[in-house]
User: What shape does this take?
Amino acid sequence: MFRSPTIVSLLASSALALAVASPAAAASKSDRAREAIAAAEAKLHAAETVGAGVEAPRDTAQARAALAGAKEDLASGRKDAAIGEAIHAQALADTAIGQAQQRKNDALATANEAERATAAQAQGQVAAAQDQADAARQQAAEASARADSAQQAAAASAAEAANARTDAAIAREAATTAAAQPAPQVQTTITTQRSVNGQRTTRTTTAPKAPVTPSRTTTTRTAPATSSEQVTATTTVTPQ
Assistant: This one.
């Protein structure tokens, strides 16, 4: 926990007053001076352990100087001065520890804030990348749908073209077949029966249309009969 220099100084002064005012029966001044010096050494060691020499170098240096002065005063027999210097060294060590801890806390808070900002930025980038991926997938799906439609249209056009070619081939084959077949032969037969003075005459005339051949006429005489005439025409169509 961080302590302000003013509070630390007050605590040190109070401790010094209590040490000076303590009864002689409790402990000798030499013992109290040694105890104060030991406590100052322990606190200074703790300050150096937490990095106070880097975070609070001035207070750490002053604590070392005060501790050294306390040891020198004790060695010279100045017990009261030794106690005062040792207590002052403890206060300076406490101040250095507090400043080092405060700076570490500040650095940790700054690091945490930077980490949160970095995490938020990373999340934003991930979200943006996800949105881009979703848009790319949507575009790919639309492109695939357009490709499927185009493929279906091409298949339909190919089928229509194939049907048209088939119909044209059928039409050509029918035309070829029709041209190869000969025209049907048309033949007309005219039969004339006439009776004159009891004599009946029958005349048959055959007139083919195609191919053209000379017409044939057949005359038949029969027994006499009453005068009369009968004409019969017969047309025969023969496919070739």
Remarks:
- The two ends are 128 Å apart (CA to CA).
- Strands lie at 185-196, 199-208, 216-221, 228-238.
- Residues 185-238 form one domain.
